[in-house]
Fold this sequence. Notes:
- By secondary structure, the protein is mainly β.
- It has two domains: about 70 residues, Rossmann fold; about 110 residues, UDP N-Acetylglucosamine Acyltransferase, domain 1.
- It contains two helices and 24 strands.
- The longest helix is centred in the N-terminal third of the chain and has 12 residues.
- The termini are far apart.
- The mean pLDDT is about 95.
Amino acid sequence: MYLFGASGHAKVITDILNMRGERVQGFIDDDPSKEELWGIPVLGDTASYQTEWTPCIISIGNNKLRRKVADAVTTRYSHAIHPSAILADTIEVGPGTVIMAGVVINPDTRIGSHVIINTRASVDHDCVIGDFVHVAPGSTLCGGITVGEGTLIGSGATILPNIKIGKWATIGGGAVVTKDIPDHATAVGCPARIIKTE
């Protein structure tokens, strides 16, 4: 396995892969000052990616940067799922997605590509999570929720049932979302209110 990005998020993914008996062979990182992480070498930058470095995971927490790498590099992407995650048999998980420790994902949920479902997040039945979404630690998504591409659900946020959240939105940490949120909006508070739209 090869990882794009050699920072904190990469440590978590490397740890998951180690637990699953998979070895990270090397990192790809655009920071020339990085030479290794945990003794694993940085092999080069995105521009110098070699096709034999496969399969890959983009180990970058920032949603926009994760998409930028995915757009730039055509390769075979794998996923990383922590052994403690509880996943229903009927979920779908796209390539490049990572699912961290203590996550629960309930039946008939569809998760896109290059998604982060972070530590102890809960995603209930019949949710649809778009590509490049980050569901931060401790978040709760009730049943029937749709989350658009690139959206960040902040740590400890709660999304009530059947809510639709648009693309590239931001839900603040600890927010309680009771109404639909449009594309590119930032919503915070309890109940969540929109404070900004791009």
